[in-house]
Design goal:
By secondary structure, chain A is mostly beta strands. Chain A has five helices and 51 strands. Chain A has three domains: 79 residues, Immunoglobulin-like, CATH 2.60.40.1120; 110 residues, Beta Complex (Ferric Hydroxamate Uptake Protein, Chain A, domain 1); 545 residues, TonB-dependent receptor, beta-barrel domain (Maltoporin, Chain A), CATH 2.40.170. The chains are: A mainly beta, B mainly beta.
């Protein structure tokens, strides 16, 4: 027995010394032949060797160590024509490859951007990849394509509500999703109360939602990582893409700055729904505004084969003005400066400096002038290394350090006014992490992923820190000077995954993750609102900890034309946050005293059946899940279903090519109601009728279902110009789905109490025109 | 001196409500209808509303019982309860049922800084609550002025209230505003606040949401509550103003034992009146 264990140990860790034979490195980059955009996740397969290959990283870079010999290498990316290249490997070779998109033909439409059997062969599980191209023809509300809304049609992801871009992943809260735009965290990803997301699909290259196995390079949010990458800009030709819709339009310009060396993309979007306000009868409404805009910018420069820099930025703001005297605007700014450097053919490095900011401001003018402001901003320095040790092992290691600075609220008034300004002490903290992981092919059948992440969080001065007694009364205020450390919390996070490949068509996978979350969203609303506030962990607030175990079976049919999977998960959440009765969350310096802490757990099963290509393609997804919470202070300490506990959730997505020029698509969504608190009796206090509540979330909202469809009509398509029309209808059979149910006194007879259901949308048609030249 | 608008959160709330209503009007096509919801029948519990005031001297207790939510009967009042008020020196006063469910006593002489205990016995079960009668805070003066109105606030005459918060003690306030003797902010529009932000300072408060016209008499009561009653009103306010889609509603934090809903509040009052004058004069 003893011997066997030793053997396994040596087997795993001895890979570095196994280079008995002389080996050489094949490395390079994989790009799109038309645009020069890096292809992420493209496969490099050695035809003559079994189970040997690599995948291009986030910058299109690949590296593969092979024994000296003659090989045929297959470069492939689904949706692109594969390339076969013969090489004689008797020295280290650098090979850059450009792949061309497959010509568009009926019956040969490819939806995924991945190697077809990747879902079988990789260790990843609970992973959803999406590109704007893929979601192009899926109908959405107002005709505005939105990656955050389409992702809600996949198993395990639940929408935060009608038309909303907020989402819940596997029983986690809305704030437990780490949403990254070119590595920068986006603290509030919604526009117009969530009806739009901040991600303009014209500027996006692709997105990857990780809800099951989360690699060690990511951390900081308990439930998922949604990694969104911006386009880099065409390295070869100038191009303009535009979209004109009923309530918003966008325009993107891209092209080379120095051919094949440097490119840029600028993409802007603006809504103009408020133009209809001029028809309003109310004078104040006529003078009101309600719009948002987005601007995405990115540029890159290839200094030489071993060095490349990228600069990307996002600016977006919502603006709401009421009459002339009230202004409310909010939005995010992110910026990422990256430097790719190859230390050798085997060692790839990326260094990033990342900035992220979210703020809102309310301005009131009249005989009183008041400005209310709140913001969160971060600076993050991040270093990642990938070491392509050999054909069987890929090591990743690195770390980062983030400086968080949060202004919970500030009220300012002109000096001349006698009103008193107020500022709630800024909250500052340093979050740092270091990680190491290895992806290892143990054998043809078994692949392993094992990693470790250390994550810590320290509150620092300057600022005020508070101590409370058991009743939540302030007992002590500690004033800290610059960089005075107050409390450091965190720990070790194991990340493990295994894939057992049964055969070419099927595999079984398992994974385990632990993640700490140090920033918590304070919100007593079901959807994200502009005034939601992020609260750091502190001497009074422990970090949330999530442990997730998942298991999955993956099976493809008919040469990967069909793909199916079943995944089950169990998630345990510690130090969850809820609020005391009557908690004041805004403008409260001692908001920590208003919180209660408890635990949560969630489990479920997710089924996905997908047809990747064919004249009719799309997917069917079904999720069964339970999400529970328990707080000593709520519902007498009994466990209760979380607000977003939704037991059954079904999505059907179908795309059908009627002809070369006409494409029809439809989605149907059905889910059982969320948990909700309703009164189980009534009584009167001071002439007002109140509901009598006996338990938290003891009731269910009515079931929800909706059908949307869309038609895309391709007009002219030449080398120089192409255009298309898109018509869509949201909620085609006009079901009045309950947005909320209000219990109130009847207006005519206050003795009568009634339940009133509000529905937001009936059928909403929309049309948009897209062009490209 | 600290000058203070009615409450900062007022603006935040207004912003949210107005914003949502505009969205709903112009982007969305919302529809509302009365629906049937199958609600459980909770076991009825006792509801007690008790007030003990110094100016004017009064003690009044209303006792009722919760009913089915969609039931037609407004409220079931409870008769034949034994209601007893005690102070911390052991003086006891029995309250008599003057009308169905309403209990009073004329013998009580409330004294500042005393702790009062209210006991209610219904069908063999006893419910108790404590409340301390805190010293009154006097209103120094009132003025009136005219506002052109802005943003969400209408044009009109409003009152400014001046008073000084006693230092080194926690104070909990309720403002009651009367227009020509009629209360303008009952339970559906409570104005309550504590002195967290201005302990021991001079204050100037402008309730801009209650407006007057010249010739009106504005009477302002500044009530000093005790902590538990304040907690009750604060959580009460939260429940009735809960926006749809916001946090799960819960019962306000009652200060009664044994699961009774409601509150017992002893409070003292500072009061002043002003006649609203035309700015032109």
């Amino acid at each position: 027995m003893f011997r066997k264990i030793i053997l396994i140990g040596v087997f795993i860790f001895a890979f570095v010394y196994a280079n008995a034979q002389t080996k050489f490195v094949l490395s390079g980059s994989i790009k799109d032949a038309d645009t020069g955009e890096d292809l992420i996740g493209a496969s490099v397969i050695v035809e003559n060797l079994q189970n040997t290959g690599s995948v291009s990283n986030n910058y299109g870079f690949y590296s593969l160590t092979l024994p000296g010999d003659n090989f045929t290498i297959r470069f492939q990316f689904v949706g692109y024509e594969p390339q076969f290249i013969k090489i004689s490997l008797n020295e280290n070779i650098k090979l850059d490859v450009e792949l061309s998109e497959k010509s568009y033909e009926i019956g040969n439409v490819v939806v995924t951007g991945e190697r077809a059997d990747r879902n079988i062969s990789s260790v990843e599980m609970g992973n959803v990849k999406m590109s704007p191209k893929q979601i192009e023809s899926i109908p959405v509300i107002f005709g505005e394509r939105d990656i955050l809304k389409t992702i809600q049609l996949t198993p395990g992801v639940k929408s935060a509500g009608e038309g909303n871009s907020g989402f819940y992943v596997r029983g986690g809260g809305i704030d437990q999703n780490l949403i990254l735009l070119d590595e920068a965290p986006v603290y509030n990803a919604s526009h117009l109360l969530g009806f739009f997301s901040v991600f303009n699909s014209e500027a996006i290259k692709g997105a990857n939602l990780m809800k099951g196995s989360i690699p060690a390079e990511f951390g900081g949010r308990a439930s998922s990582v949604f990694d969104i990458k911006m386009k880099e800009g065409n390295l070869k030709n100038f191009g303009v893409t535009g979209n004109v819709g009923l309530i918003s339009s966008n325009l993107a310009v891209e092209g080379p700055l120095v051919k094949d060396k440097s490119s840029f993309i600028i993409s802007g979007r603006r809504t103009y729904a408020d133009m209809f306000l001029v028809f309003a009868k109310d004078e104040d409404l006529k003078k009101s505004q309600l719009y948002f805009y987005d601007l995405n910018l990115k540029t890159n420069y290839k200094i030489n084969d071993n060095n490349r820099i990228f600069l990307s930025g996002y600016f977006g703001r919502d603006n709401f003005g009421f009459s002339d005297q009230f202004g409310f605007d909010w939005g995010s700014v992110t910026g990422t400066l990256r430097w790719n450097h190859n230390f050798s053919e085997k060692l790839f490095s990326n260094t990033s400096l990342i900035f992220s900011n979210y703020s809102y401001e309310i301005n009131i003018q009249g005989d009183l002038e008041i400005a209310i402001r709140s913001e969160i901003h971060d600076w993050n320095l991040k270093q990642d290394f990938t070491y392509y040790a050999n054909a069987k092992n890929t090591l990743k290691y690195g770390g980062n350090i983030i400086y968080h600075n949060i202004l919970p609220g500030e009220i300012s008034v002109p000096e001349s006014s006698a009103f008193t300004p107020e500022e709630i002490s800024r909250r500052r903290a340093i979050e740092w992490a270091a990680y190491i992981s290895n992806s290892q092919n143990i054998s043809e059948k078994i692949k392993l992923y094992y990693g470790l992440r250390l994550a810590f969080f320290s509150n620092t001065g300057p600022g005020e820190f508070y101590e409370f007694n058991e009743n939540g009364e302030l007992t002590n205020t500690i004033e800290k000077e610059d960089f005075g450390f107050v409390k450091t919390q965190g720990g070790v996070e194991p990340r493990l995954g295994i894939n057992y490949i049964l055969n070419k068509k099927s595999s079984v996978k398992a994974s385990f993750n632990r993640i700490h979350q140090f920033l918590h969203l304070l919100s007593n609303s079901t959807t994200t609102t502009p005034t939601d506030l992020w609260l750091p962990s502190s001497n009074n607030v422990k970090p949330q900890i999530s442990d997730q175990l998942s298991l999955g079976y993956f099976r493809n049919f008919k040469d990967n034309e069909f793909e199916s999977s079943v995944e089950i998960y169990y998630k345990d959440l510690k130090n969850q946050i809820d609020y005391k009765n009557g908690a004041e969350l805004v403008f409260n310096s001692t908001v920590e005293a208003e919180l209660v802490f408890g635990r949560g757990w969630a489990y479920g099963a997710e089924f996905l059946f997908k047809r990747n290509y064919g004249r009719l393609n799309g997917w069917l997804s079904y999720t069964w899940s339970k999400t529970m919470r328990q707080f000593d202070e709520i519902s007498n300490g009994n466990p209760f279903p979380a607000r977003h506990d939704r037991i059954h959730d079904v999505s059907v997505v179908g795309i059908f090519d009627i002809s070369k020029k006409l494409k029809f698509s439809a989605t149907w969504v059905y889910y059982t109601g969320n948990a909700v608190t309703f009164p189980s009796g009534k009584y009167e206090i001071g002439g007002t009728i109140l509901g009598y509540y006996t338990e938290r979330n003891g009731y269910r909202m009515p079931d929800y279902h909706r059908l949307d469809f869309g038609i895309t009509w391709q007009r002219k398509k030449t080398e120089k110009f192409e255009s298309s029309w898109n018509f869509s209808v949201y909620n085609a059979y006009a079901r009045e789905n309950a947005y909320y149910i209000e219990f109130r006194q009847n207006e005519e007879n206050p003795d009568v109490t009634e339940a009133v259901q509000f529905a937001l949308f009936k059928a909403i048609p929309s049309v948009s025109y897209k062009f490209k030249f | 001196m600290i000058k203070w608008l009615i409450a900062e959160s007022f603006f935040v709330k207004m912003t949210k409500i107005k914003y949502i209503s505009i969205l709903v009007t112009f982007l969305l096509f919302s529809c509302e209808k009365v629906i049937d919801v199958n609600l459980n029948e909770a076991n009825p519990v006792i509801v007690i509303e008790g007030n003990l005031t110094k100016t004017p001297v009064s003690v009044e207790v209303k006792i009722s019982r919760t009913g089915s939510y969609f039931g037609s009967a407004p409220v079931t009042k409870i008769s034949n309860a034994s209601v007893l008020l005690e102070d911390d020196l052991g003086a006891r006063f029995i309250l008599d049922e003057l009308e169905k469910g309403l209990y009073k006593s004329r013998n009580v002489h409330p004294q500042i800084d005393k702790n009062y205990k209210l006991s209610v016995e219904v069908e063999g079960k006893i419910y108790e609550a404590f409340s301390k009668l805190n010293p009154p805070v006097t209103i120094d003066s009132l003025t009136s002025a005219f506002s052109e109105g802005f943003a969400f606030l209408d044009a009109g005459y409003y009152v400014t209230i001046y008073f000084e918060d006693p230092a080194e003690v926690k104070n909990y306030y309720q403002l009651k505003i009367y227009k020509n003797g009629k209360l303008k902010n009952d339970f559906d529009n409570l104005i309550i606040f504590d002195d967290n932000l201005f302990d021991g300072q001079k204050l100037e408060i402008q309730p801009r949401n209650i407006l007057f016209i010249p010739g009106d008499t504005a009477t302002i009561e500044l009530n000093s509550l005790d902590k538990n009653a304040y907690e009750y009103f604060k959580t009460f306010q939260e429940v009735i103003s809960t926006n749809p889609g916001s946090a799960a509603p819960a019962n306000p934090n009652s200060n009664f034992t044994n699961g009774a809903l409601g509150y017992f509040s002893a409070y003292s009052t500072g009061v002043k009146s002003i006649e609203i004058k035309d700015i032109a004069e």
